[in-house]
Amino acid sequence: MIFSITETVPGHEIITILGVVTGNVVQSKHIGRDIMASLKGIVGGELKGYTEMFNEARAQAMSRLEAEALVLGADAVVGIRFTTSAIMDGSCELLAFGTAVTLR
Q: What does each C-alpha distance from 102 to 9, 11, 28, 75, 84 come to in angstroms?
């Protein structure tokens, strides 16, 4: 499966647009991460626990996007974008979306 943030795949021609595919994950905060983030907030710096959590969420969202694209018979997903939103206090959603296509 080829993933692209652009609307095309260099060296390939898009034959069929199969439709929009998505993958999303809703994450909640972990008490241990919250405590460490609060302490880090005093001295400043990267909140590595949250960075790791977000990286895991992005990987899971991409895996779900790929699974949806494979069901449609896609060779690639183009125009991939990511968005986040707060769902409720202490949790957020990461959504990956793009267009599933077949290539020549």
A: 11, 13, 36, 5, 28
The reported pTM is 0.84
Per residue in 32-70, pLDDT (tens digit) is 656 665 665 666 777 787 788 888 899 999 999 999 999
- Between CA 35 and CA 39, with CA 61 as vertex, the angle to 5 degrees is 10
Distance between CA atoms of residues 84 and 33, nearest Å? 19
Query: In whole angstroms, what is the distance from residue 68 CA to residue 3 CA?
Result: 13
DSSP state of 29: -
Angle made by CA atoms 16, 22, 26, in degrees to the nearest 5: 175
